[in-house]
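Notes continue from the previous slide.

Worked example: a multi-chain complex. Inputs as given:
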Amino acid sequence: MTSDDAERSDHTTKRVLFATAELTPLARVGGLAEAAGGLVRSLQAEGVPITVVMPDYSGLELTNERSVDLDVPAWAGPMRARRGAIEDLHDVILVDRPGIARPHPYVEPSTGEGWPDNDWRFMCFSAGVAALTELLNPDVLHLNDWHSAASLGFLATPPPTVLTIHTLGYQGMCDAAWLNRIPHNPWHFAWYDGCNPLLGAIRSADKVIAVSPTYATEIVEEAGGMGLHDDLRRRGDDLVGIRNGIDTNVWNPQTDEHLAVNYGPDGIEDGKRVARQALCEEFGCSVENDVVLGVVSRLVDQKGVDLIAGLGPYLEGMKAKLVLLGSGQAELVEMIEDMAATYPDRVSAVTDRYDEPLAHRIFAGSDLFLMPSRFEPCGLAQMQAMAYGTSPVVTPVGGLVDTVTDVDRHRSTGTGFVAETNDLAGFVDAVHRGLRTTRIAARRRLIQRRAMEHDWSWQGPARAHIDVYQSVLA
Ligand code: GLC
């Protein structure tokens, strides 16, 4: 054991309270669920005593359950915490408060509109996290995104605290009246004429983690800081970037039960041929001539859906078929459906659901995976694609830059195609470059294998988190 390991294992005895609004598979909307689920399981495997606290949206059942009433302000109560184990998670606390439970964590499912009382719901959750912190006295409090950020305003003397920013796209901005209900340092939460929970935690936490090194540099600039760049810049070295991993037990073509055949780096050519053929049969493309471009994405502004739609006119000339799985904002769903109607032979889209088995088949069966995000704090799908030996074509932003190495700029290490510019011209050019390389079998095989053999697991990132815990404890 090196001295580094010794220090680390020493700190595995420190107790972490980890607050999140989503965690796969208990409550899943987007990347937050996957990232929180992957990190917590990996920290658990590293021996860190970690307790997850999340809202109970649906009356989940725990084993070995015990419960306690939480001491929260009158407007947030009555509130109960139920603690126990669920699935492979040893220690989970569900915060129960009438009104927090809903059929979807954030939006009315039929309209996609946010619940009108989300500010109150997550202020309640934050007050609950604060009450639990006082009760359990953890060594480290780890908050994720805005949903639990206000807990720091309800704690007179918070323990060492880490805040992870999965996205600045949602800050929980709400009415200034909330400032009157925040007893400690309310000015940290004051933002123009309102109350900004995420900003409050950015100002109060001991360390702030951005979910990739590049995102950590982007958010201190006006262009990427979504209004909070000055405050983020002021944090100096207390703002760090650690990229996410992926759950390599779930995203593993060697064991994936959703694939027609399993394959590893040695059998990549045969494995992907079978997966590709199956995908072509499912979506009707010509196996010999077409290149299959895959997309698995939430259809929200961040994901560059307009750039995907912009590819429409080029597909015929590229002899490419686009296979898309995505759901989300109504106007973007419509944009993709229009594209599919305009180019019926070239585009097949499933837009009414998230279908996990189909996602696995798209990652495996595509020749190239498209992810032209306008901004991307980390991004998981590009890593999932690479784990299946599929080269991503991405825009030059955030975690995409940290995880995809451009094949044409780095011949001996490249894994995918990074657009020169974050616009349609740059993206179309990168897709073209991807197509050219994909059609050269020997070169393609080499790149696919390289992408697949990279360690995308959570182990390294989890250890980097332990180092951050250690630094706030010092
Ligand atoms: C958010 C970000 C995404 C990131 C994920 C997990 O969904 O948009 O880039 O990968 O959180 O951290």
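Summary box: Residues 30-32, 35, 166-167, 211, 244, 376-380, 399 surround alpha-D-glucopyranose (CB under 6 Å). The longest strand covers residues 89-96.
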